[in-house]
Batch of 4 targets.
Target 1
Amino acid sequence: MLPSSSPIKVILDTNVCLDLFVFHDQRWEKITKALASGEIIALTRKDCREEWLAVLHYPHLPVNEGNRAQIERDFDHHIQCLTLASTGMKLPLCSDKDDQKFLEIARDSNAHFLITKDKALLKLRKKIKRLNLFLIETPESFVANLVANPHLEEIKTPNSH
């Protein structure tokens, strides 16, 4: 088990990022606070950041020229954009090929968790867990773990990196 000073590495999918940085969903406030304190570190790569920037232009979102730059800064402040070499380890295929990249980032960054609300990714929970690479969690279950384990030692994967 890692000491509590070792941050938990997470991957946040686009919809979770919308909840955190656009809608400021209070249900996930513990995630925001853990990101701000450095207890968890969120990671992404360039193609996911580009997807995020494109999503911010969707007309149904409460994003406009007045708040877009701040939302982008908040994302960039809390999420590290990395260039990652593939580990080459084979992953299960996601039924939504656009979401495969989140699995790849989690694998290649040695993340502890992929936090998602996406049904196609959540369907892969058991397969990914059997590979002992990382855990796929909903924001609800991740926050429940943060509440139950405020020092974070107990919520890392069995093979914590």
Target 2
Amino acid sequence: MSNDVKKEEKKNPEVVDFLSQHIYFSRFPEDERIYLASRFSVRNLKMNDVIFNDKEVGKTGYIIKDGGVKIYKEGFLGEEQIAQLGKGDIFGEMVLLDAFPRSASAKAISDTALIEITGDVYDNLKVQRPEIAVKMMDIFLKLLTTRLRTTTLKLFAQF
């Protein structure tokens, strides 16, 4: 391991460990996980803290390191839950791929730690480490297609 990689590893060792055990990121070579961890940050939340609101312009995607998140829309009768997410789940990634506002709101359902992937970090990856950016885009596309299939099934199950 080079000295540069060792320096980067020291920047965020708990994120390196988390990524090493993540369903998708564990497949990345160690040097790529270390590189990502040195650029990601951790955001700690309390129960009911809002992460983002529907229709907000966002620049950050998230991976749940610990805790849980509720994705919801405000309706006539209050909050309508779309999904409940837990450790390891990725959300908010659509803003990394397009410039549209958020399509739902998100809040912590317990004390929660999130790994933040900012748009700036993702954009820099595309230039500085395109091999990592492509792998991340593959993850995002898998998530989006899975969610689309699930939504389609739910819609047609109503008829």
Target 3
Amino acid sequence: MGALTEEECLDFLHRVETGELTLEPVHCAQDVFAGDVEYLASNGWSVVVFNDANEWHYIERIATADGRAVASDEINEKMSRLSHYSPTHEVSWKVYRIPGYCDHRCELCDLDISGGWTIVERRMCCHQCVPPDPSAKPRRAPHRVMRREDPRRQRRRPNRR
């Protein structure tokens, strides 16, 4: 088993960009905001990307299913094309789920999130897209709740004539 080559890494990234391979984040990429985000690929490989303020920054590590790996130090010293690799803004969002500098996006509706959000199954969701909690009871606004009176509990009012 030889060392992982620059050509193999670039081919892997190309296959990820074209959708031939899919990535699944280990943690929500936007929740990391600044740090390493690991992705598991559909072919058994993994890639770790440094996310800097929700902007795709550089490759920290690529590892194959057979255990070969290359880290950022080796990439920077020996693999100039790979060290300069950067996906387009569109690929960064659509593939890596990293929306752009200081931005947050709902991963279900693609809209920018300006208020609060919720992480659901490693996906950032705006409040309109958060799936309902099956254990939660539906709530109604208090002014719309109809009160049903139990006829057995009704007080009898005296007849005033």
Target 4
Amino acid sequence: MRLTQITCASLALAMLATPLAAAHARRTVIVGMSPATDCYRAVTERRQDGNSIDKCTLALTDDFLPRETRAATYINRSVLHLRRHESRLALGDANNAIDLQGALSQDDSARAYFYRASANEDLGNTRAAYEDYRHAAELSPAWTAPRTELARFQVR
């Protein structure tokens, strides 16, 4: 048993040392769905079930999840919480996404501010909602949703 382990370990190291093995490693594609992908699909398929939120949560427990994927997953879980009228949880996830802002594209940053605005509005934080809708509109001028929401407000 010990000899087999040593032989396998030596073989693996030898394979990694060769240029052909390194080239092959760069071409390897992992097939299958990740919890982060499942979370994204739940949002795009307009689901709002607890199992979908669990997939997002599972993705976020992965210590090796890239920052940009982590930020996007927080945004997606925020959307799912909003659909379930869980505004406090949605607000927390939107805040977590915004905290990772360096990992977000400008459009994803706009999404994070937009969903945080929705959560704030649901919670009665009108001023914070207005500011977040405004910020989302500035980040993504071509996206009409933030401007549509801003049109409902009267600034005094």
